[in-house]
Amino acid sequence: DDDDDDDDDDATTSGKEREDAMKGLTTAHAFYAWYADVEETMDEARRRARRREADALRAEIERRDDALRKLEEVETGVKTLVDAQAALKLRARRTQEESERLIAEKDRLLEFADALRGKLDYFDQLEKVAEQFQAGVIISGASDASGASLAPREQVMPMLKRLDDCLDFVASHPQYADGGSYGTKFRQLQNRAMSTVREYYVSALRKATKHVQDVAKGKTGVSGGEDEYDELVVEEGSATTLLYVRFRAAAAELRDLTEELEKRGHHEEYAALLSDCHVLYCEQRALLLAGSVRTKMRAIATAERGADVIALARIGTAYLVEVCQAEFALFKHFFPQTDPTGALSALMIPLGTYLSDILRPKYISITELALLAELVEALKGEIIEDVTSKIDNALALEPAMRRILSDVQERLIFRAQTYVKDQVGNYRATAADLDFPAKLVRALQAKSSGGDSEDDIKNWYPPLERTLTCLSKLYRCVEIKTFAGLAQEAVSLCADNIAAAARAVASKATPVDGQLFLIKHLIILREQIAPFNAEFAVSIKDLDFTHMRGQMRRMLGGEMSFFSLTQDNAFYQLASEGRPRVVESKIDSKKELEKQLQAACEAYIMSITKLIVDPMLSFITKVTAFRVSTTSQGKSIKDAAFASEEKLAAIAKQVKTSLADELPKAVYTMKLYLHAENTREALLKPIKSNVAEAFAQIAAIIDADFPPGTAARVGLLDPAQLAAAIEDAS
CA 414 to CA 487: how far, in whole Å? Predict the structure, then answer.
């Protein structure tokens, strides 16, 4: 700052001097000299100023370099402190990690020790439980008559829970040494404990049953003996109190036991034990109920002696439904988590036999299919349906009712087989049955006169009507497979009897009547059995011995030795290759019926065809024989004696007469037998085709071997004339 002031003073002084000097300048030389001096002075001043500035800058640089060195020293110190701090943190973290590892190792070892103690505890339970059994505490407690001091729920059930846990543990750890042997021992102890529970359950049920019997017989107090009573019969008024309320109170301790068993029901062993308890329970209940139910059923049978079997079945079932509902509620009390339907079936089935005892004599004496079918439909569609879907808590009665239904169905099947055999297969037709076509003519006349015409069903051949009636009653009453077997037999016998009747009609009336009789009834049979959704087929297995002939022939012919020790021994060959074969064949009545109908239709078509064009067919046969004969080689048909124009004219005239007479008769007869127009048309169409074909063949022969115009001369109808004649005749 002082140097700057000096410079300013120098500049001021120089300025003044320059001003003074400029006042004395008079020439250019002097000016230039003055100017050079001034310029030198100013340069010097500037140099001094620059030097001062440079000195000041160097001083500032030195000061700042010194400060920078001090800062670097501080930074180095700080870095040293940071490095020391990081090293300290690393050592602290390592120390912490090591401490945590040691703590985790300690915890792991503690957990391992606890787990080891827990696992060993399962194996230690074997000795503890075995000691209890060896001491006889559990068995004596369970077998105690009073059952007051040591009940299974208090000791056996906790023991079973421990055994279950041990078995589950051993089963889930098969890799442990001696795990299999421990599992076997645990299983043995479990079986012993379950046997104890079963014994206790039987004892408690028997006590409850004995208590009810004592009260029913008028005894008081507790009876310790094993007195046996006759069948218990309880009056209706006291049945609920005695058979249900007292029994529930006497067996109250069993509810807790069954609840424990039901909780473990997912185990196979407990499920089996629970099932045994159900059976034991039903046995004891059956002892108490059997006498009362049998007596009630006998009373119903006596009171309803004049009623039919269906009414008796309804009344008896209604009583069993009441019993089933009461037993349902009682069973649910003792087994709250079990569906009573399946278990109670074991009780209701024997009780249902008492209903069967009063029903069976009645339906066994029934021989009419209609009554038996009505009983089956009532049981199947009304009584059992009500039991299964409409009445609450009665589903357990279904198996008992289905047994009765099955027995009635067997009776129905037996009567149906007898009926089919006697009334269809062995039916002997009467003269009235075979009065065809007179029966149909009378029916047509009655209809045309406006009177009461005979019902077409009354004109059916009786075995047909009986077969269809029988099948219609059986269809809804038996299983489809059973129905199929019965239907196959019935249809087969019916078709055979119809065929025999058709032959009788043909002998009494005409062959055409016999054929139409057969076609009519086979068509009706086919149409009426079509709605039945069943296969009219059965499989038959037979033994086939035909292949044994060769073996026997070789044996008797000496080709095989009876005493050979090789495979060529006759007995060995007979046993290995000569065994009878089982041959299975299937008999389908529908297919057989179709074959019979087709054959009958074809026979009828050929019969009508022959009635109309038989002369033409005979002529065509002679022409064919003439052409293949060796004696007629080189000769023309027109030269043959049977082929003269006179003969052809006679044939044409005879055929036209038959076409005008026989075809209308055939159509009329078909209308008598066959009411369906499409059926008649199906038979007429091939007849017309056959007639046209015969005319065409005759025309072809005349065109090939006779002079032109012969067809017109002999009076042979051309196709248009023939079509018109057939249309007029039909």
Answer: 13
